[in-house]
């Protein structure tokens, strides 16, 4: 029988992985807003996200995609 | 009555955030058997630590130093005058070398700090610097920094509670741990959507306040224009940006932006 929680872990993991990969600045801002001054990075008037943080989130996104795929396979196999 | 639009929006977003927080608090009271006073006390301590650590880290991370009054007497004099007009105490003024023209405010009314970068002072004309400073002072007067800390505090608390709910209702296998982390992150993003929406609006309000205090929005508009024009081309890493199909300025990233597009701000300032 399919384990619903494992399947949920797979679906949500894939979703978060895609968000991390395609819109890393959304994840970075979610974590940094209110903890660092807004507009602290980049030029004045923008809320730029440093490139190294984007890359880190994208690496985490790849990890989420891999784990999501694994749990999806485990839940449906 | 000042900023009626902001107050109305804050009432809506505040109610939504309170609803999220109330659900999280009820779950904590039910699951951990905590009394309401302890939940509230814990939340206040959590947000308080975030505020204090955040302020300290922000100043430390850029190596900010006090803006010497003997070298920049005009800036001190203008900030003193603007602060008086805005009805706030003059904030501490600091300077830092950030590599780019920038300025930001930390702290609250009565204990605020405004940091400007050396690059900003070099690139902008005195009236443009004044426009930038007036915008930052408006952030302090409107308690925008505190609002962001509070919003992040609520989002973090709700996310932590969501994680624990997943963990406590599961079998503690590896899939449950992964699910808890993912649910926590997605929950935090959901709550922060509302915080970001109000943050973008607060930028327009700070622009409007700065323009009103200076008698014109033109100096701040020129400052934004000058900086954004010189920024074109040096900021974005093409390799990274190529992967961001929902990159800055469009779609999902736009919903999670703290600032509205610079072009729109310039347009509004010149209206």
Task: Summarize the helices and strands and which ones pair or pack.
The complex is a heterodimer of chains A (77) and B (271).
Chain A: H1 4-22, H2 24-32, H3 51-76
Helix pairs in contact in A: 1-2, 1-3, 2-3
Chain B: H1 4-32, H2 36-61, E1 65-66, H3 73-86, E2 92-96, E3 103-108, E4 111-117, H4 118-123, H5 126-141, H6 144-168, H7 174-214, H8 218-231, H9 238-243, H10 251-255, H11 262-270
Parallel strand pairs in B: 2-4
Antiparallel strand pairs in B: 1-2, 3-4
Helix pairs in contact in B: 1-6, 1-7, 2-6, 3-5, 5-7, 5-8, 6-7, 8-11
What does this structure look like?
Chain A is built from three helices and no strands. Chain A is mostly helical. In chain A, helix 1 runs antiparallel to helix 3. The longest helix of chain A has 26 residues. Chain A is elongated, with a radius of gyration of 16 Å. The mean pLDDT of chain A is 88. Chain B is an alpha+beta fold. Chain B has a domain of 186 residues. Chain B is 70% helix and 7% strand. In chain B, a hairpin with a 2-residue loop joins strand 3 and strand 4. In chain B, helix 2 crosses helix 6 and helix 8 runs antiparallel to helix 11. The longest helix of chain B is centred in the C-terminal third of the chain and has 41 residues. Chain B is elongated.
Q: Could you give a short description of this structure?
A:
Chain A is mainly alpha-helical. Helices cover 70% and strands 0% of the residues of chain A. The radius of gyration of chain A is 16 Å and the shape is elongated.
Provide a count of the helices of chain B: 11
Strand content of chain B: 5-15%
Q: The biggest beta sheet of chain B, please?
A: 4 strands, mixed
Lateral strand order in the biggest sheet of chain B = 1-2-4-3
What is the makeup of the main sheet of chain A? none
Number of domains of chain A: 1
Helices and strands of chain B, in order, run as: HHEHEEEHHHHHHHH
């Amino acid at each position: 029988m399919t384990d619903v929680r494992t399947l949920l872990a797979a679906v949500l993991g894939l979703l978060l992985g895609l968000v991390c990969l395609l819109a890393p600045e959304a994840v970075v801002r979610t974590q940094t807003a209110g903890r660092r001054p807004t507009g602290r990075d980049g030029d004045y008037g923008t809320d730029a996200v440093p490139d190294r943080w984007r890359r880190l989130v994208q690496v985490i996104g790849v990890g989420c995609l891999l784990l999501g795929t694994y749990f999806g396979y485990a839940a449906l196999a | 009555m000042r900023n009626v639009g902001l107050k109305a929006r804050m009432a809506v977003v505040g109610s939504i955030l309170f609803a999220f927080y109330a659900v999280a608090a009820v779950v904590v009271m039910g699951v951990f058997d905590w009394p309401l006073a302890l939940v509230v006390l814990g939340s206040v301590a959590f947000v308080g630590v975030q505020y204090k650590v955040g302020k300290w880290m922000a100043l430390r991370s850029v190596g900010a130093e006090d803006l010497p009054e003997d070298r920049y007497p005009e800036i001190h004099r203008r900030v003193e005058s603007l602060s008086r007009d805005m009805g706030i105490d003059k904030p501490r003024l600091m300077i830092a070398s950030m590599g780019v023209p920038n300025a930001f405010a930390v702290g609250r009314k009565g204990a605020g700090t405004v940091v400007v970068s050396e690059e900003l002072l070099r690139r902008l004309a005195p009236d443009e610097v004044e426009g930038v400073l007036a915008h930052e002072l408006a952030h302090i007067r409107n308690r925008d920094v505190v609002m962001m800390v509070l919003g992040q505090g609520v989002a973090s608390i709700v996310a932590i509670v969501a994680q624990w709910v997943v963990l406590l209702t599961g079998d503690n296998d590896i899939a449950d741990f992964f699910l808890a982390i993912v649910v926590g992150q997605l929950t935090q993003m959901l709550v922060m959507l509302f915080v970001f929406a109000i943050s973008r609006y607060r930028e327009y309000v700070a622009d409007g306040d700065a323009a009103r205090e200076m008698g014109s929005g033109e100096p701040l508009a020129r400052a934004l224009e000058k900086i954004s024009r010189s920024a074109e081309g040096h900021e974005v890493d093409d390799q990274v940006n190529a992967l961001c199909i929902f990159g800055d300025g469009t779609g999902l990233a736009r919903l999670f932006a703290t600032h509205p597009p610079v072009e729109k701000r310039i347009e509004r300032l010149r209206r």
